[in-house]
């Protein structure tokens, strides 16, 4: 029986806490019981009130929880800047971390880990909105900007809110393998590993032009039909620009050329097909607008840093190799 202690405190994000709690609870139930004991604790054993005003019932104080702790999880909070200075809360966090085999923080909970020195010299991540803040406040931490979750030694951090579910699934897989984890994901109706990382918020979202940009309709058309005819000559005709002027507008507003933008959209389309189907690579290349499997491989490797085959392989599990968590 692995004890999972989740720390509730006033102002925490309720889903940061309850999402992982449900993952461990469901894993225990599907396994027939006896693998996880899930305990929501607070500093003094009293119920707490979440950031959204929901009351979170707790089982006990952290001190009253008997025995060793396997996993100690800290939810995030929109009030992280203030709570980084909350010494009573940090003292409880230190105590729990000292007792635990591994420590995990969801979303802005990473700032609380950093405040007690647990991110020193480690890799970490947090909600995409706070990545710059994390890097600025903890310069000795290597802030990873794309992963949904990061594990370094016994310390784990993850992106915002629902990413706590992704992290908890990864921890379950490390403990009990992919078969049980897959059952948990199916029961909860979530991805075993969600498509993409924090940079997954699509090429279109990463390259937002100004509101009145003449490129908006062109960009939408490319995303809607990646396999369409998007040669520069065709795009310039749609926009009513010369090819040279179109290139200048792309560079000014998006920082990339039209050709590179089309390639990024097609790689994103291929990535989604790789994640969602077992179609052969030549079919995926065609559907994504690539001329051949080799063209797919070249573009995919350039944009993603790995081959289509290797990318597909890693999406068969949560992405955490057994025994590394």
Distance between the termini: 17 Å
* Order of adjacent strands in the largest pleated sheet: 5-2-1-6-7-11-10
Looking at CATH, which topology of the largest domain would you report? Rossmann fold
Low-confidence stretches: 321-325
Supply the CATH superfamily name of the largest domain.
Class I glutamine amidotransferase (GATase) domain
Which CATH class of the largest domain?
Answer: Alpha Beta
**Please, how many helices?**
15
Mean pLDDT: 89
Helix and strand element order: EHEEEEEHHEHEHEEEHHHHHHHHHH
Total domain units: 2
Structural class: alpha/beta
Radius of gyration: 23 Å
> What percentage of the residues does DSSP assign to strands (E)?
5-15%
Tally of strands? 11
CATH architecture of the largest domain: 3-Layer(aba) Sandwich
Principal-axes shape call: elongated
Main sheet characteristics: 7 strands, mixed
Protein name: DJ-1/PfpI family protein
Organism: Pseudonocardia alaniniphila
Domain HTH araC/xylS-type: 216-314
Keywords: DNA-binding, Transcription, Transcription regulation
């Amino acid at each position: 029986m692995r004890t999972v202690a989740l720390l509730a405190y006033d102002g925490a994000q309720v889903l940061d806490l309850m999402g992982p709690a449900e993952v461990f609870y469901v894993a225990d139930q599907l396994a027939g019981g006896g693998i996880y004991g899930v305990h929501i604790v607070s500093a003094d054993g009293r119920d707490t009130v979440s950031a959204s005003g929901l009351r979170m019932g707790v089982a006990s104080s952290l001190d009253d929880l008997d025995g060793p702790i396997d996993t100690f999880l800290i939810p995030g909070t929109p009030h992280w800047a203030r709570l980084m200075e909350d010494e009573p809360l940090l003292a409880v966090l230190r105590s729990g971390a000292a007792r635990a085999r591994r420590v995990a923080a969801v979303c802005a909970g990473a700032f609380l880990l950093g405040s007690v020195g647990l991110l020193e010299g480690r890799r970490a991540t947090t909600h995409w909105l706070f990545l710059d803040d994390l890097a600025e406040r903890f310069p000795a931490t290597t802030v990873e900007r794309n992963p949904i979750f990061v594990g370094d030694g016994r310390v784990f951090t993850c992106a915002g809110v629902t990413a706590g579910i992704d992290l908890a699934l990864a921890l379950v897989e490390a403990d009990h393998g992919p078969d049980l984890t897959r059952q948990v994901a199916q029961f909860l109706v979530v991805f075993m590993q969600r498509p993409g990382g924090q940079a997954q918020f699509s090429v279109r979202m990463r390259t937002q032009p100004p509101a009145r940009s003449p490129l908006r309709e062109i960009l939408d058309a490319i995303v809607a039909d990646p396999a369409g005819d998007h040669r520069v000559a065709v795009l310039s005709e749609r926009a009513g620009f010369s090819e040279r002027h179109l290139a200048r507008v792309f560079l000014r507003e998006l920082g990339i050329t039209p050709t590179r933008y089309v390639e990024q959209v097609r790689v994103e389309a291929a990535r989604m097909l790789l994640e969602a189907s077992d179609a052969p690579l030549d079919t995926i290349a065609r559907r994504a607008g690539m001329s051949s499997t080799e063209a797919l491989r070249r573009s995919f490797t350039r944009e993603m840093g790995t081959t289509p085959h290797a990318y597909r392989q890693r999406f068969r599990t949560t992405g955490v190799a057994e025994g590394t968590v």
